Amino acid sequence: MIVSALLTSVGINTALCVLFFACYSILRKQPSNYKVYVPRLLAEGISKRKKRFKLERLIPSPDWVAKAWKLSEEELFSLAGLDGVVFIRTITFCLKIFTFAGIIGILVLLPVNCWANQMQDFDLADFADNSLDVFTISNINSGSNWLWVHFFAVYIVTGFICLLLHHEYKYIASKRISHFYSSKPQPHQFTILVRSVPTSSGCSVSDSVESFFREFYPSTYLSHVVVRHTSKIRSLLNESKNLYQRIAQLRSDPSQRRHKLGDCFGQNDKLVDHYRKQLEDIEENVRLEKSEASLAGEEARAAFVFFKSRHSAATASHMQQSVNPTQWITEPAPEPRDVYWPFFFESFMRRWISKLLAIVATISFTISFLIPVVIVQGLVNLDQLEVLFPSLTSILTIKFVTQIITGYLPSLILQLFLKVVPPVMRLISSIQGYISSSNIEISACNKVLSCTIWNVFLATVFSGSLLNKLSLILDLKAIPWKLAVSVPAQASFFITYVVTQGWTSVLSELFRVIPLIGSLISKPFTSHEHEIDVPSIPYHRDVPRVLFFGLLGITYFFLAPLILPFLLAYFCLAYIIYRNQFINVYAPKYETAGKYWPIVHNTMIFSLVLMQIIAAGSFALKKLQPASAWMLPLPVLTLLFNEYCRQRFLPIFIAYSVDSLINKDREDQKDTGMAEFYGKLVIAYEDPALLPIQYSSNSDSLITPLLS
Amino acid sequence: MIVSALLTSVGINTALCVLFFACYSILRKQPSNYKVYVPRLLAEGISKRKKRFKLERLIPSPDWVAKAWKLSEEELFSLAGLDGVVFIRTITFCLKIFTFAGIIGILVLLPVNCWANQMQDFDLADFADNSLDVFTISNINSGSNWLWVHFFAVYIVTGFICLLLHHEYKYIASKRISHFYSSKPQPHQFTILVRSVPTSSGCSVSDSVESFFREFYPSTYLSHVVVRHTSKIRSLLNESKNLYQRIAQLRSDPSQRRHKLGDCFGQNDKLVDHYRKQLEDIEENVRLEKSEASLAGEEARAAFVFFKSRHSAATASHMQQSVNPTQWITEPAPEPRDVYWPFFFESFMRRWISKLLAIVATISFTISFLIPVVIVQGLVNLDQLEVLFPSLTSILTIKFVTQIITGYLPSLILQLFLKVVPPVMRLISSIQGYISSSNIEISACNKVLSCTIWNVFLATVFSGSLLNKLSLILDLKAIPWKLAVSVPAQASFFITYVVTQGWTSVLSELFRVIPLIGSLISKPFTSHEHEIDVPSIPYHRDVPRVLFFGLLGITYFFLAPLILPFLLAYFCLAYIIYRNQFINVYAPKYETAGKYWPIVHNTMIFSLVLMQIIAAGSFALKKLQPASAWMLPLPVLTLLFNEYCRQRFLPIFIAYSVDSLINKDREDQKDTGMAEFYGKLVIAYEDPALLPIQYSSNSDSLITPLLS
């Protein structure tokens, strides 16, 4: 790719950025879009819908940028929890390392690449026609001593990143602990989940749980709630919710509707009556099912067990309860709001099999995802495309079209396909038998990350057929060499990838394209102000995205330092936009208290080792053997550093220690409100399906319009 | 190799077997050898040294075989603990699977190999000159449908082995639990070890431990013992022991000595006085060191902490104690007799570094061990040797010499080198920071196992230079193919390996060659009857040895079924001989309650998967693609089976469950002797170096000869 193609791409995207920012500034002020752009503020009652029209609504203003910029970490913590803080710190972490790497890359490596020992002259006169390869390491002669500059850059940047990683791990671990110390008593701290409860004949699951914990935890056991099979009730409730909404739609604005539909008014009333009858039937069914569910027969072999102290709950969740390790399996309970009720596998075998299925599904999805990647590669290698479709030759000779196709289209197609990955992976994780949304999203996050790295990075890098790729991967010895050959060759693709995929993805996050379209379509039919659905940030989509750009930056910083300014622009955009979204849009659905950080840390270590392997391969390829050999201690040191961090910090993210648990428990003993808390504890883990019906045919909002 | 060379080797070894058995029968009856052959009985006082000579002493008798054969599992358990039972069950397990595989192999596979579609005619007339390859799978034509017989044999044997593995795992797990239930209160069940104890200034380790456990385990904490640095005292005590023995030697039989040395008598007395003075000096030093060691300055940052119940000790050892995971590291304490005092690393970093060093040492030792393997290979390939050393040609033309060299010498050399592996690996494991001999031996067992498999099996199989080998291993895709080519080619080597290495190793175990030689050399200088050193069985040497033959059998049963009868003979010998040694020689030094079984299980699974990969490669090599393809589900199923066993049984071998701990604790509460037990508990974990001096200059045995 030549410089002008890149400039085209950058130009289009910069224009898009400005346009999107301006549009957003205007759109977010329209009361009709409040539900899309400030649902959180609406739900909290901070922002009221102003009906009066003002001119300033139509003038773009940058005040939201200033607001997002000024947000302190404490405010962010109160808004988005520790997970939000960790997410933003991931972005600032990337900003820090790429500022540092950028200074080295642009001021030292780029001039070296361009002017030292050039194979290809950097042509200042005809700047735009230069190949991008002029700016990469490929431009340096074999055996040139200038490569030692790259060598030291790799060492220095690795050292800097490791230092920063250690600092961040320590900081977030301390945040996690202080968050625990400062938190009020929370139900999940006093609760464990027990699964695979064995039952003898004539003895219900509830009795079994009661007698087991009364026997072995006599002084600390409080009570328990048995989980019930409620899939039927859940589907009925969904049906009733749909019906309710349909009725509500029909009733929503009778005057307007009458005006529009005219003669259909009678029919409308008939429909409503029909739906109401259906709703009543379903309610009857739900009531029947509920009374059945409360019988012993519908008990799942799982229960939430409550304890009097955090320490005893933690102890019970850590220890193997039964001689048979496949029975009485305990684990810490998730927050009540975080419980994932639909897939409540209680038996050991079923969970095991579903886990295996999930692994198989993940691997086959990841591999089959190569197809779009191959399409994208075809577009980058236009020559191949011309051979395949000779009819395109005439179009492809137009310079602008070629530049669009090679510079913009490939990564746009890839981006569209990548949009599918997070929801699919979340689905796979949800059938894996996790009991909480947080665990599902953490697991999905890992899956999305490996799928993205594999497909976008490794598969793009190792060009060739699918089988060819697999056989390359199996030949471990050849990997550094292959990486060194193919990674620098893909530099121009990834530079445009950052500009297109990166910038547009973060802009579409700001613009909330899909919710906006959804709201535009559904607007005529809804008018319920009371029901505002505040979304939560899909960490399993956004964490891998940010981390993937981190990976790109780390691996390419010494190969093609030109990528760094574009990456910095991406992270700056992300920094402002995500902070803005935390203020206006997202409300946390759960609190893992920083459990995403180990994923960030591991990915950074992986990126570093990958970069070091590529560096070793590159120096060998450039026939600078000593540099290649001296590169080998670096991955070893990096992995040792990682192992140290794993020992030093990881346990803090897995469980709380005895001293903090007991200290916290003792604090509570002074608290007079604990009796009340224990009372509430028992009802905290009620299955939402068993709560009183929310969408009833007798509910106010359905009756009100009838009266009006 | 041809049949006659094998027969030579078998002949030599069978003769050796008979000879050794006869010699053993005679030697074990000589009172002077009691210390070598029945130290256990001597120590228990069952066998007395009979001074009177009887003729029957010189006639070999097989009564010991009958005695070993009749031993029941309960008796074995009482003699050698659960570990001994597990070891013998490993041998019977191998006997069972190789009987089953042997029936299939000899009755079905061997005839198929010999007569079906032979490439090379099996020549009954000149039986001895047939190549051993006639009996292997190599003899079958490419694409022959007879290979399906091998295919089904692999499936059937895999199924049989998995069934048996499941049964054994279940049986040994139940034995472990019932052993726990039937055991009396033991100190290590109530004790944890805490390391990396942080100390503040002006506060001793002891105070720190006391205050921590008093605060967080107020109701269950009993007391503690701080570990002290005693390496100086230990070396002084060793010195004093040596001096003591030297004096005792000089004094042992003054009359005899006077007779022999005549004029030296005066000098002898002088020497004794000199040594006594030295001994007194050392004792003085020891006393000084001991009083110093009891001061706070010599405290290690580690302590044994005692609890009132098993459950609370288990809880404390399972949970992370401190917010900083590198402090207050707890683990279950080993049995008092099992504690390994010399390397008591207390700090987190020091243990971490020593662990890394141990890994590096293991890997480099394993790789450098290839040198003897290459020598052995040279002997097998005589042609290469002749090229290297032309002078040998004349000797090598003699048929008998050639047969000895190719059939016997290579595996003998390998055996001698392999003798070095277990002690070296034990040394490496001991610096790794384990606190108990049992853990050291379990870790050494794993190391010896991987070293043996790597060096003897994989490295012998992949012939070529060291670098060549490494590059082959890195090319994952080519491995099944390479294995399929080279493993059958080494069949004859491994058949003779079983006959020589296997049979002689187990015979030398019976004969106790090294202790016998040691006793013959030291006999003239010792006469202390009271000091009998009952050895313990070195599991880290014997478990890998037995398992390696299991691996050989499993991988070769379908390639060269001829190996099976020799293997069965080996396991029969091992069965009788090890049972005999448990009765007469070894006393258990520790009780891991069956923790060696998971190692056995894992090795069997590894063997199965290796065999299946070789099978898939062989069928592909023989151009029977469908059989090769249908072989692929088998390793997947085997690994799934292993994963199931890991989930179902492994936790039982790691820790005891809450219900068994609490039930056992409740049993104790009825016991009136618990107060006394708690009292003893505190002194159970005294460092032996701090106990009263055993070899004192004032002790009776030194004074008695002076008075006589």
UniProtKB/TrEMBL annotation, chains A, B:
Residues 189-342 form the CSC1/OSCA1-like cytosolic domain. Its main location: membrane. The keyword Ion transport applies. One of its GO terms (molecular function) is calcium-activated cation channel activity. The keyword Repeat does not apply. Keywords: Calcium, Coiled coil, Ion channel, Ion transport, Membrane, Transmembrane, Transmembrane helix, Transport. InterPro entries: Csc1-like (IPR045122), CSC1/OSCA1-like_7TM (IPR003864), CSC1/OSCA1-like_cyt (IPR027815), CSC1/OSCA1-like_N (IPR032880). The chain crosses the membrane at residues 6-27, 86-110, 146-166, 356-380, 400-418, 448-467, 546-578, 599-621. Signal peptide: none annotated. It holds the Pfam family PHM7_cyt. Residues 5-168 form the CSC1/OSCA1-like N-terminal transmembrane domain. Residues 233-292 form a coiled coil. It is found in: Membrane. It is a multi-pass membrane protein. Belongs to the CSC1 (TC 1.A.17) family. This is CSC1-like protein At1g69450. It comes from Lupinus luteus (European yellow lupine).
